[in-house]
């Protein structure tokens, strides 16, 4: 019997952020696949920092009503 391997992926910041805030389209489907455990997100400290910096921008917080707690959860 063959073992299936879980996919690993690096997700571009723009794609990841779009999927988190827009709730539609391909970016959203990628985020949902991650939440279901369909693949493992590969992330480095610089990428993590970029994700949090982008999500913490006042424009995103205001436009999408993101709290600091929600940003931390993402």
Describe the protein's architecture and organization.
The mean pLDDT is 85. The chain has helices spanning 13-22, 25-36, 45-55, 58-64, 68-73, and strands spanning 7-9, 39-41. The chain contains five helices and two strands. A two-stranded parallel sheet has the order 1-2. Helix content is 62%, strand content 8%. It has one domain. The N and C termini lie far apart (36 Å). α1 crosses α2 (25-36). By secondary structure, the chain is mainly α.
List the helices and strands and how they pair.
Layout: E1 7-9, H1 13-22, H2 25-36, E2 39-41, H3 45-55, H4 58-64, H5 68-73
Helix pairs in contact: 1-2
Give a nutshell description of this structure.
The protein has 74 residues and is mainly alpha-helical. It has helices at 13-22, 25-36, 45-55, 58-64, 68-73; strands at residues 7-9, 39-41.
Please tag this protein with its features.
single chain; 74 residues; mainly alpha; two-stranded parallel sheet; 2 strands; 62% helix
Main β-sheet, spatial strand arrangement: 1-2
Shape designation: globular
Structural class of the secondary structure composition? mainly alpha
How many domains? 1
Percent of residues in beta strands?
Answer: 5-15%
User: Which percent bin holds the helix content?
Assistant: 55-70%
What ranges have pLDDT less than 50 throughout 5 or more consecutive residues?
A: none
Radius of gyration: 14 Å
Strand segment tally? 2
Assembly state of the chains shown: single chain
- Separation of the first and last Cα atoms: 36 Å
Reported for the largest beta sheet, the result is:
2 strands, parallel
- Number of H- or I-type helical stretches: 5
| Overall average residue pLDDT | 85
Q: Which series of helices and strands comes N to C?
A: EHHEHHH
């Amino acid at each position: 019997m063959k073992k299936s391997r879980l996919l690993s992926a690096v997700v571009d910041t723009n794609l990841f952020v779009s999927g988190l805030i827009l709730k539609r389209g391909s970016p959203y489907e990628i985020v949902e696949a991650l939440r279901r455990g369909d693949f493992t997100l590969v992330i480095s400290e610089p990428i993590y920092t970029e994700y949090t910096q982008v999500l913490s921008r006042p424009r995103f917080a205001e436009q999408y009503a993101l709290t600091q707690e929600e940003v931390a959860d993402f």
